[in-house]
From TrEMBL:
Gene this protein is translated from: hsp18_2
InterPro entries: A-crystallin/Hsp20_dom (IPR002068), HSP20-like_chaperone (IPR008978), Small_HSP (IPR031107)
Family: Belongs to the small heat shock protein (HSP20) family.
PROSITE patterns recorded: SHSP
UniProt protein name: 18 kDa antigen
Domain of life per record: Bacteria
Residue ranges occupied by any SHSP domain in the UniProt entry: 29-139
A family per Pfam: HSP20
Alphabetical list of CDD domains matching this protein: ACD_sHsps-like
Length: 148
């Protein structure tokens, strides 16, 4: 199975609008890059997703799963200092991202870890989505197996 079947893309036009807003911003000026960039891939029987969250306190990260939707929320706290701000290019505050996973993934057994500013999710492929052998019988005797 390809990665596209693991991560559902429901509306290509919404995705295009989102990318346009990221590049141009809502008022036509150049915008900052996404605050939660991610990579997703399949390796064998596991689907992996990594989110870049540098400078985020691990206690502020929340991962929720409802049906086949995974929501990741994180917070990069505002500076507590009254110092004069010279540049502010790193987004602060609460941000979130949702992934719609395909039915072929086992959302009951997702694992998550956070290391060096990267949140990693591992989602196993569901048993019913894995290839299996089916025995063919003839006159009550097993003759051969085929892949299903």
């Amino acid at each position: 199975m390809e990665v596209e079947t693991m991560l559902m893309r429901t509306d290509p036009f919404r995705e295009l609008d989102r990318l346009t807003q990221q590049v141009l911003g809502t008022n036509g000026t150049l915008a900052r890059p996404s605050v939660m960039p991610m990579d997703a891939w399949r390796d064998g029987e596991t689907f992996h997703v990594e989110f870049d969250l540098p400078g985020v306190d691990p206690d502020s990260i929340d991962v929720d799963v409802e049906r086949n939707v995974v929501t990741v929320k994180a917070e990069r706290a505002a500076r507590a200092s009254d110092a004069e701000l010279i540049a502010a290019e790193r987004p602060r505050g609460v941000f979130s991202r949702q992934l719609i996973l395909g039915d072929n993934l086992d959302t009951q057994h997702i694992t998550a870890s956070y290391d060096s500013g990267v949140l990693s999710l591992a989602v196993p492929v569901a048993e019913q989505a894995k290839p299996r052998k089916i025995s063919i019988t003839s006159n009550g005797e097993d003759r051969r197996s085929i892949d299903a």
